[in-house]
Specification:
By secondary structure, this protein is of the alpha/beta class. It is 39% helix and 21% strand. It folds into two domains: 161 residues, Rossmann fold (3-Layer(aba) Sandwich); 151 residues, Dihydrodipicolinate Reductase, domain 2 (2-Layer Sandwich), CATH 3.30.360. The strands form two sheets. A seven-stranded mixed beta sheet has the order 4-3-2-1-5-6-7, with helices on both faces. A hairpin with a 3-residue loop joins strand 10 and strand 11. The mean pLDDT is 93. The protein binds L-homoserine. The site of L-homoserine has 10 residues, from helix 7.
Amino acid sequence: MRKVWSSPNQTGELMSVRVLILGVGTVGKGVLKTILGKPEFSVCGIASSKGYIYSENGLGQEALKQMAAGKKMSDAADFKQGSAMELVKEKEYDVLIELTTTDIKNAEPAFSYMGEALVRGKHLVTSNKGPLALHFHELDSLAKKNECMMRFEATVGGAIPIFSTIRDYLADEKVGSVKGILNGTTNYILSRMFEERIPYATVLKEAQDRGIAEKDPSYDVEGIDAAAKLAIIGASVFGKKNAYSEVKRTGITHVTPEILELAAQRNYRIKLICSADSKGMEVSPRFVGLSDPLASISGTTNAVTIETGSAGPLTLVGRGAGQNETAAAVIADLVNIEKNTR
Ligand code: HSE
């Protein structure tokens, strides 16, 4: 694996790993806040859609603190108008942290940023679902060819360590299937409709107010967000080639309070379940028996059951979205890269 810049400085200490952050939205600010307390990393550049700031030896802590607290990057003294691609292509850094807005239709511009960084031999951490759901194998091949690590824990299940559990802890196991609740908005809607008898439109508005719904909430309720997450599992765990287009998808728009009630009378809950195995991938509302751990997952919580050979089923439960949770997954990936590339 390609080593990061780690030569000792004059006092013999290892230099900080230089990171370039693309995207200063909710997740970007969360990542900045955490990185500021970690001397093993130095942020040498940040870019938004409007421009960037960059310093080869690391940006000043004060400027970063202010930005994490919400100050506009364009107010920084050394702000330059220019494209993020300029930074990715031309500047020095060790790890690209790609956190720009996702696009599930064409994955751009994030896919190009990631591809360019990998070609240049830069390690990659991302929370961006589109490029991984649509082009997982292209990115994975580029990473391998250029001896780079590519980590994407934050794309699926927020802070739940799905991929590292499968990759590291279950390295010696055959994973038979992965099944879970991977969209917090729809789980929140179904839970509130059932538990509080609140109408669909009212709960959807609540989910939007809580900031968990996608900008276009049809991406949640039609199962698109869940399908993108499932495609990343399908491609990375089961080797699916055209993962996103192969996902069979049904959303929750036809689930009524009457159906939820009827299911409850028969000791079931209805959940938007994502499932993947070597045969295929499906997102759909399904009856879940009360003995299944997924039946009791309510609100915005996510959960995933990994079916293994000898370890049996493992169910991981955690917060599926939110600034701190998603930032925690990004930082865990970054630390993992640092530990493996010094
Ligand atoms: N809209 C998504 C959800 C956000 O509700 O799960 C996290 O990917």
